[in-house]
Amino acid sequence: MTETQPTIPVPEPDEASRPFFDGAAAGRLMLMRCIDCQTWRLPARQHCDVCLSDRYTWEAASGRGRVRTFGIMHQRYHPAFQVPYNVTVVELDEGPRLPTNLVEVANEDIYVGMSVEVVFERYDDVTLPRFRPVRDL
Amino acid sequence: MAHPLRGVAAITGLGMTAMGRIYRSTNELAAEAVATAIADAGLRKDDIDGLLINAGITGTTGGGLTLGLQNYLGLKNLRLLNHMNAAGSTAAQMVQYATMAIHAGMATHVLCVFADAPLKEGTSAGAAYGGAARNPQRPKGMAGLYAAAGYFGANTPYALAARRHMALYGTKQDHLGIIAVGQRQWATMNPLAQMREPITLEDYHASRWIIEPLHLLDCCLVSNGAVAVIVSPAERARDMPQPPVYIHGMGQGHPGDSGRAGSEWETETGARIAAETAYRMAGVGPSDITCCQIYDCYTYTVLVTLEDYGFCKKGEGGPFVEDWKLAPGGSLPTNTGGGELSAYYMWGMTPLSEGIIQGRGHGGERQVKNDVILVTGNGGNLSYHACLILSPHPA
Ligand SMILES: [Zn+2]
């Protein structure tokens, strides 16, 4: 974990999402999963968007995935973000997609389909999942 | 057998305000467009018996049109009234519901109104659509993951969609640039256009990045203004002052949430379903379309929409536009007023208003062959889509 300036607009955990943020703080990517049809739910929500069941459990995801798509932001929307930075959507091996940033990689080296793995970054009172390229063994 | 709605209604009135930094309330802008549209149709205010209302971004941020527009306009004879919002697909949808209501005998002259005024004096255009970046409160729960990743504004999802198309199909930056430059060429001939200085492909590449792969010149304008459209029964339209623009086909397609697992929202939009429905209703196919008015919040939207309407195969939108066929003099004139990229950003009213102008033959030096006009609208990160097929010829 790395300490970062707590200036970006970090989310405030709510009742529905607390296991996700608690999991991140403990170094695990926790996702909701439908008990009835096994669909992973992201974001956290009361009802499954496949079968509308309201029964769920929380399970740890693998933390592995691929870059589905990404953009390099040059517009200053918020002073805490130093442009240019990557805005990346990671498609987890389990299927759901997570908006995030890639770390430990130069913007020009990112590509669609790149294999990535989760790392966790702490921002003041909240820990967030970020992703880095899977290194060759 | 012909579809029961094919050709039963026509567009008989069009009213528009000036576009851009017009600092008036949305009710005032709407009233000006409505008064113009009613006069344009040769009607009196009391002839209006249907009102459909759509607010733009100020419908959610404050100051946008509400049902209260009825009272502001003093409409007393309404038999049909609704406030609708399916983002940029609403304009085409209003004309669709007006047509259905007319066919069902629910109303005769239906007024469809859009007004928006997100530009405030002394602020940048970007401030109008910035989203959560300016929200001082911490976002709650996992919805906050977007802002925490620096995912702001409408520019981000469209850049992400364009990037995926490029990665899957080899679409080039030049392909997007050719769309932007071609539409600016059209805008130079549109007196209502906000941006009328010609640009080159070099200017396009030199324009600053917003979020790669989108340059500034890939992104639509932000405009204050209003557009009002009147839909009437086809048999009445023949005796009204303006050349009727008949509604031959219509369709919708809504693939929904852009973030869900399994969705290919980036490259396969609801336009495909809308196209099938509309082509079948109108009895035409892509080769019959003589000009396109395509919702162009971004250059990429034009490219992917052309694919989904079957003008070329999926993934071949880039090579399809490469020969400048969308630009003046090309074989598929598209966004002939300059579109949202160069003329004015009135959500789906931008393509609809230009479709009406072309359908009437009022395009002046930018007039093109208008036998079969495709008008499309999309919104919500390519989540919603609606279309019309218009023609000056009775069905
Ligand atoms: Zn389920």
Automatic annotation (TrEMBL), chain A:
Domain ChsH2 rubredoxin-like zinc ribbon per the UniProt entry, residue ranges: 21-55
Q: ChsH2 C-terminal OB-fold domain location, by residue?
A: 58-121
Q: Record's Pfam families? A: OB_ChsH2_C, zf-ChsH2
Cross-referenced InterPro entries, in alphabetical order?
ChsH2_C, ChsH2_Znr, NA-bd_OB-fold, Thioester_dehydratase-like
Q: What is this protein's record name?
A: DNA-binding protein
Lineage here is: Bacteria, Bacillati, Chloroflexota, Tepidiformia, Tepidiformales
Automatic annotation (TrEMBL), chain B:
Q: Which InterPro entries match?
A: Thiolase (IPR002155), Thiolase-like (IPR016039), Thiolase_C_2 (IPR055140)
Per UniProt, the keywords (alphabetical) are:
Transferase
Is the keyword Transferase in the record? yes
| Gene Ontology terms for molecular function | acyltransferase activity, transferring groups other than amino-acyl groups
Q: Residues in domain Thiolase C-terminal? A: 267-391
Q: Please identify the protein, giving its name as recorded.
A: Acetyl-CoA acetyltransferase
